[in-house]
Every structure is written in C-alpha cells, then in structure tokens.
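Here is a protein:
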Amino acid sequence: MRIRPRLLIPVALLVAAATLGTALRAPEPDFAWRIPAPFPRPPVPADNPMSVAKVELGRHLFHDERMSVNGRQSCASCHQQALAFTDGLGQAVGATGMRHPRGSMSLTNVAYAPALAWADPTLHALEAQALVPMLGTDPIELGLDGREAEFLRTVRGDATYRRLFARAFADDAEPYSLRNVVRAIAAFERTLLSFRSPYDRYRYGGEPGAISESAKRGAAFFFSGQQGGCFQCHGRWNLSGGVRVEGDTSAEGTFANTGLYNLAGARSYPAPNTGVHAVTGRAEDMGRFRAPTLRNITVTAPYMHDGSVATLDAVLDHYAAGGRTIATGPHAGVGRLNPHKAPNVDGFALSVEQRRDLLAFLATLTDTAFLRDTSFSDPWRRP
C-alpha cells in the first residue's frame, strides 16, 4: 500500500469522505483488544468503531486476490504476514507489472502511526489510505480504478461475503459499498498489533532473562545520546517516534533526511523519491522520509524507502558514518554532506563488539507470535 503524492489527486474526494469523522470513542462492546499492559489502545475513528464482524470481513478483503485487475494480487501480496506485512522487495510491483518507486512499509502496529506513507505527513486515516492502492493510477497498485462496480458485484455475489457484510454492517440498507470495504480493511489493520517480542518480555514483562547480555548492551547503545542516539528517530515503545493513542492523536510523524543520497544540483535525492519535498515543494523537506517502526526489523529487508540498503549491517554502516557515500554512478555523492540532512544524524563510533550488540538487540524485536498469528492469516487459503 505505497503512496505517491500524485496518486492522491484522482481519489481526493473519496479520501476526504473517508477521513470525515475522526473524533474518538470507545470500541463496541463485542470487540476486545488483545493489548498487554502497559501499552495503550490505538485511536479509532468515531464513524468506524471496531467490531469482531468488521475485523473478520476486513481480513477476508485484505487477502482477497479478486480485489485486483489481474485477479492475482491482494493487499497481502505486498504486505505478507511472515515478513511483518512487507514483501521482501525494495520496490514492489503492482497488478499491471508497474514497479513502484518505494518499498512496502510494514503494517506492524500501524494503528498507532501518525502518518501512513514514507513521505506524506498529511495521510493519517487508514480508511483513506486503503483507497489509494485500490484506485490509484500513478502508480497502479491493485488497479481497481473504473472497476469499482464490477468488484462490488463480485462481492455481492459471493456467499461468504453476503454473510460477512450482513454481520458487519447489519444496520446498513446497502452494505456493499466501497466505503464499507475500506472501513472493514482499516478495522482489520488496527488489529495488527505486535507486543510479544523478547525485548517486550524483557523491558515490560518482568523477564530479565528474555534477552541476552549482548542484546542488553545493544539496547543501552541504541538509547544512549552519547553513543548511538538511535532513539531520537526510533524512540518510545513502538521504536518509531511519535504514536497516536486513544485519547491523544496529537503526535506527528517523524520524517528525516538521513544522508542516504547527495546528488549534485538542486535536488540531492533521485526523483521521484525526494521525500516530503514532493508534497510540500520546500527545499528543506528534500530527502525527508518517515522513520518506520523497528519492530520485526530483521524480517523486513531490504531497508530504506527505496530498498537500497540490503542488510542491517549496512544500515549500521550508513548511520555510523553519518550518511552514505556512493563512489560512482548516477547517484554518486557523499550523503554525510547533504545540506538538508537531519543534524542528529552525525555519525558515531562503532566497535566490532558494539555492532554485534546492536544487531543482537535488533533481533530481540522480532515477534514470532505476531508473524504466525492465525487471526491475521489468509482465510481463503485451502489446506
């Protein structure tokens, strides 16, 4: 579900409609969050309260390959559970074969995200975001633009969906609508919660032996302002910067230019991936991309918005140097000298032992129960 700024224009009216009514209220009585203490509940729009039936409908839609122009791709094609709802590609490929400029972001704990794209700080609502891969044309993802009625006829004609829609939208005289489709998908996505990693058990669960001594040293390095300082962008319990929670949706997304590129000329990042600049047009926003959550980071390679860094080892090289140097080719440049680089990305000393400790810490963020949870799995799959 990748976003490009120009993609928002054709679906602007639908996005606006889907964004209406974002005040918060308590979930419906029949829905129970599976969130351990001390983690908060995520925000839920007043016009799309959670319900068991809606989540189950959303799970079916999320995994349904009929929701694409080629009949072979679904939301889950680019957001695979085993890969923390990414796809293992630097740049995903849509239903028509069009390659996307950026990679699929992880949906781990997406319900708390203040912004839902790599470079668009204005897209906050999951309901609105779900319309983009369905109807967007630049790039084409699922390719349903102009085929909305055909897709809804397919849904209406399916016995499973007739049962699920009737339960999820029992008070709706005409439940088979695009609005209800994205409401159900968004409700399902809000349940993609990951709080069961070894680090969670160590940090919040009272299990001091849940992670190794090496990982503990790595965590200390990560959260130290005098050493790694990684927490400055990947902070708080979600390791993603600010989060929005029930009762407080004031947090904004963390966007930063990390010195990944430094091309000669006015645009120091290769088009079309110029970051928030592509939305605002402001020079100071050049190369600013969102800091994703580091939860389950070991299964989400390749890294960075364009998948241009293959391994976590190479990611550490990039940040330790305070930016990436590309010696030759069309993207040659010294990222450390990018004029719009975030001032806190200034490099740090990293010994062999500290590198090993940091990697050990990052590995403790893998929540295998989340990656295998059958409540997120494909309900259409035959044994």
User: Anything to note?
Assistant: Confidence is low (pLDDT under 50) at residues 1-28. Residues 178-189 form the longest helix (12 residues). The beta strands are 255-256, 289-290, 325-326, 333-334.
